[in-house]
Amino acid sequence: MDSEKYYKLSVIIPIYNEEKTLNRVIDAVLAIDLPLAKEIIIVDDASTDGTQKLIEQLPDEGVVKIFHKKNQGKGAALRSGFAKATGDIVLIQDADLEYDPAEYPKLLKPILDGRADVVYGSRFIGSDAHRVLYFWHMVGNRFLTLLSNTCSNLNLTDMETCYKVFKKDVLDRIKLEENRFGIEPEMTAKIARLVQDQELAVYEVGISYSGRTYSEGKKIGIKDAFRAAWCIWKYNSTTTAKIIKYFTHGSIVALFQFIFMVLLVRGANLCTAYELNVANILSIEGALLIAFFLHSTLTWHVKFTSINEVVKSLFEFHLVTSVSILTRIGSFYFLNFLGLHYIPNLTIGVVAAILINYFGYEKIVFNRDRIKQEPFMEPILRKMRIRRVLNEIKKKPECALLDVGCGFNHAFLSAVEPYIGSGTGIDFKVPEKTSAKITTVQTRLDKKLPFKDNTFDTATMLAVLEHLDHPLEITREIARVIKPGGKLILTVPGKKAKPVLEFLSFKLGIVNRAEIEDHKKYYDLEELRDIVQQVDTLGIIHHRHFQLGMNNFCVIQKQ
After folding, report:
1. In terms of domains, do 386 and 416 share one?
2. CA dist 381 to 307, 343, 385, 422, Å?
3. CA 75 – CA 32 distance, rounded (Å)
4. What's the CATH number where 159 sits?
5. For all residues of the chain together, what is the average pLDDT?
6. Over the stretch 488-546, which tens digit does the pLDDT of each residue have?
7. How many Cβ atoms are within 10 Å of 29's Cβ, its own excluded?
8. Over the stretch 381-421, which tens digit does the pLDDT of each residue have?
């Protein structure tokens, strides 16, 4: 890729209490001659010395100034800077001058040449000058880089380096979360996932390094090293990382089951044969719950959005685990019957169980495409509505039925198909098709219905009225297309249902949130009667509540 295709470099400078070096680092960045325009984005993380005043005195041209009211850390400062960056390439520059802006041409070259998407500046390769400082800092950096490489499957020499350069579109593909120095391993972990999934090219170049002593203002410490190790474990999600975590977490779970068993036997004094079996079952279940937590949060990085997702995945987790246990028992019995020695027999069973669990969790339990399915209560509520209306449909067998707002899968029409002569479903999201009895028509419910007068014997409108901006107009249209003596059967949530449905959807996630957010109105009997009375040919002949008084069931007849 040509350098002409890149137009601007955004230099992000997170800063906290660096009044001694701020002006020098700004001057050094401005002095570099590059084939790109430059914008400097300074993010002050609530400095307590004179840094803020110095930033305010800087010229506004080419410099974006961001001030945090509260100290949040380097990661938060970088996120604020990234959000404001308008360049094609983004480079991170610390404000302490440990890293020399004169290195920019070297750092940018792999991207400008079209070879790289991301470039790291390494303090541990190359022949440039390095200040000799702390041995154990060097050991810590190399250890964290080794740990990161083990999980990310990259071969970096300096994961913790400040100098990281990205194409802007690469940064736009990752969501960063860490507030403090944990941002370095987090960025590397998420870049590694893009390398695996999208074949990003990452390069390293050797850089000089003029480290500071603590008396000169160095801020990173041992606490940050432990946090970095945790972030390496937390954020890496490559296949390599998942396999390592799978076995590590499995070992932790086995240890916890042992601990649970000892506590139950000795602490709760469960000593009889029956009690020991109970203790074993309880310890297994406790261990499985810990395994589910570890694997969902750290191995597969699933972020559940509702209790329904958790319950469904937990059930599938138990199912997959049960299949692996039964496979292990069955294979041992079968191979033992064939005369295989117990050691290879046992080995085969263990390997089979490990593979079944891993691929079951990967492809079924924690597969995000499978998790995002219909909320738990939706099919239950739908069946209750259908059951309520079905008895009314059976009173006029072989009728011509119109289902208004039939939904994408026209579930009601499918349920009543054996009892009707023909069924037509209309909805703005239903695909148009025709079968022996069922026809679906894609149309919006805010205009004249595409049917002749007096076409249908019966019309149904189940959980639709509450979504309509103009309920009176659609009611008039339904009255037009049903025959004299024909019926409109509708269900609509009452006013009592509003707080309940909002709790079930917004808090528990077991009812479709988008559907509840789309509700325009909740109806009581008087409001339904008011609509019907404005249509001369219609009258309510039956009304009752169902679903614990929260839903209206109404039968309306055309004169």
Report:
1. yes
2. 17, 53, 6, 25
3. 26
4. 3.90.550.10
5. 90
6. 999 999 999 999 999 988 887 778 888 898 899 999 999 999 999 999 999 999 999 99
7. 20
8. 888 889 889 988 988 889 999 999 998 888 899 999 999 99
Same domain membership, residue 332 and residue 197: no
Return d(Cα 35, Cα 153) in angstroms, integer: 34
Domain shared by 136 and 261, yes or no: no
Are 363 and 395 members of one domain? no
Kindly state the tokens that stand for 234.
Answer: 């937390």
What are the two backbone dihedrals, phi and then psi, of residue 356, each rounded to the nearest 5 degrees? -60, -45
CATH code, 537: 3.40.50.150
Residue type, 164: K
Domain range for 419:
378-558
CA 287 and chain centroid, separation: 26
Amino acid symbol at 181: F
Residues 74 and 12 in one domain: yes
Instruction: Out of 191, 216, 237, pick the residue that ends a domain.
Output: 237
Report pTM: 0.64
Q: Kindly state the tokens that stand for 303.
A: 């972020």
Summarize pLDDT for 165-217 with one digit per residue, the tens.
999 989 988 989 999 899 999 999 999 999 998 889 999 999 999 887 777 76
CA distance from start to end of the chain: 75
Q: Tell me, what's the pLDDT at 4?
A: 44
Burial category of 75 from C-beta neighbours within 10 Å (exposed 0-12, middle 13-18, buried 19 and up): buried
Separation of alpha carbons 93 and 14, rounded Å = 7
Residue where the block lists tokens 């800092």: 137
Quick one: tokens of 553?
Answer: 């069931």
